[in-house]
Fold this sequence. Notes:
By secondary structure, the chain is of the alpha/beta class. Helix content is about 45%, strand content about 20%. Helix 1 packs antiparallel against helix 11, helix 4 (about 75-85) packs across helix 9 and helix 7 runs parallel beside helix 10.
Amino acid sequence: MVKLRNGDLKLVVGFAASLVVLIFLAFDGLKPLELLSYDLRFKLKPFHKSSVEINIAEIAEDTIQALGRWPFARKFHGAFISVVSKSKPKGILYDVLFTEPSEAIDDQTLEAALKTSGLVYLPYAFELEDTKGKIEYGKEFRPLPVFARWAKGEGHINIQPDADGVIRRIPLVIERDGKMYPSVALELVLQELGTDFKKIKVEKGKWIYIPRHEKSMIRVPIDDQYQMLINWNGPWKKTFHHISFVEAIQAYKQMTQGVEPVINLESFKDKFCLVGLTAIGLTDLKPIPIEPVYPGVGVHATVIQNLLEENWILPLGKKENGAILLILTIITSLGLLRKRPVPGAIFTLITVLIYLVIAYFALAIWGIWISLVYPIAAILANYFATTLYSQIALALEKFGDAGRADRIIQYPSLQTAS
């Protein structure tokens, strides 16, 4: 039988402690902490100034006050579309559902504006159903056919926060009853790139391939729910150009009257315009990694920027993170092998700090999310386990020496025999 030396046992103890952390990684045992570390890295990293210019037409408190309680008459949507379309934007994306008939004259006004414009993307939504902890998509809420037929494109606006309620990703594609549905942001991007949804290729849990030019593809990383991690470009108020919905309508009227408009309608030219609710109490504001409240229309705007700039977050899978954990385990175990507790603590601290820097810059510079919590937990577990083992082994050794000394004092003949 092979007897392990003290150093060998120390390595085994360190590896065993790291193996426990690896099991936690396999079953997402520390996921809430990992998500918090991801959010913290996002808050610390410098924000990116996007080259994709987007106007956000906010249906905020001033618009509700001027046009009446929500939902206000659809003739105002028709007026807004007509006004903005005259400035020749790249596209107008609505984050508002038009699923039920309203006053006939108002619906006719909106239909006429959609037909004349030809630039409007309309959304639809799916009812979310939680089936045994798994999200399923149920009832579909589509825009009325009289509106949909004049839309430049359609797509879903579903956003599913993580378990902690924070929005970090969005399903670019929804699969329901064997059929695929694009998000409205993806639909806009596809048309901007001169392609369509039928031409993309989807590898579940891996990539969405979007044709860009001849023999050229954009490869977007997705998870097994077809979700893309969003690369937030900055705070809500600083990332986009914000315009009041009602002021855009008023500006056109003022121009026709020869009065200086409250806003310059030329600011819509050659830019994307997204329309959405931002009034408090009328929209479901959710936290994102960098802000406690963020409207859904901003999520879709950010996704458009990410896709057109190919500026998303690439998360490493469990296999890759597990490999990193094992490499760090080997480095830590060998580094602690001959060290006493204090030098071992210094070595461990330096290793942790180096890994913190690597994990931060991987996200901040290269847009790669590598696990932070699990590898650091493995390093610390390795240190504490091996240090505890060393102290116990030392205590046992001293206890053994003390016992041997007592026996020699009691039986002096043992010293002669030895």
